[in-house]
Amino acid sequence: MLVLSSPSGAGKSTIAAELLKREAGLTRSVSATTRKPRPGEVDVRHYFFVTPDAFGEMVDAELLLEHAHIFGNQYGTPRAPVDAALAGGRDVLFDIDWQGMRQIAQTSRADLVSIFILPPSITELERRLRGRAQDSDEEIRRRMSKARDEMAHFGEYDYVILNHKLDESVAQVQLILTAERLRRPRQVGLGAFITDLE
Q1: How far apart are CA 197 and CA 89, in angstroms?
Q2: Which of 88, 113, 85 is nearest to 178 (CA)?
Q3: pLDDT of residue 133
Q4: What is the C-alpha radius of gyration for the chain, rounded to an integer number of angstroms?
Q5: Fold held by 2-182
Q6: Residues with Cβ within 8 Å of residue 48, at least 6 apart in sequence
Q7: Predicted confidence band at 144 (pLDDT cuts at 50, 70, 90)?
Q8: How far apart are CA 46 and CA 44, in angstroms?
Q9: What's the predicted TM-score (pTM) here?
């Protein structure tokens, strides 16, 4: 399970999208959320858009790997699709916040690789948020205020990447993914292979 986290606007979603184009064997975890779809977002492809009541039922039934309350909405990762992808030999990419990463780490630390994405500066972070033209000035102020708190959690992550240039950041994540796939415990069938060599 590969987790990317960052403050809103630092580039984790862009890095995630590019990584999915370049990496075979990697699938994206689709989160459930109670927020309304943004223009261009499609149910099931971008998020599972659910009502607050349905989300509460998912939490109560323990159908989520993690969940958090962010910017007035609920977000969470449905467990079943992740379990199915992992059982099928695929790595799963999560685009979630530090709260979600912490919850997954409590139950699945051995199978988790976490990367925190930092913006090159606070000024650049605000420029990126405004450049998306998706949020009101009030929403941008709220996200900027929240960014400092989110960045304070970088120390909980295995790796930290400064997202100055997109291609470099994606390449760095790819290097991490390759190295983590090569860890001895993650190489399925290695023991049998060694036995055959002997």
Answers
A1: 24
A2: 113
A3: 66
A4: 18
A5: Rossmann fold (3.40.50)
A6: 30, 31, 32, 33, 78
A7: confident
A8: 6
A9: 0.85
Nearest to 171 by CA among 9, 29, 20, 19: 19
- Give the confidence band of 160 by pLDDT, cuts at 50, 70, 90: very high
Q: How far apart are CA 20 and CA 183, in angstroms?
A: 21
How many Cβ atoms from other residues are within 10 Å of residue 96's Cβ? 25
Q: DSSP for 87-120? A: HTT-EEEEE--HHHHHHHHHHHGGG-EEEEEE-S
Report phi then psi at 118, rounded to 5: -105, 145
Sequence-distant (6+) residues with CB within 8 A of 7 are 119, 125, 143, 146, 147, 150, 151
Q: Between vectors from CA 74 to CA 59 and to CA 49, what angle results, nearest 5°?
A: 90
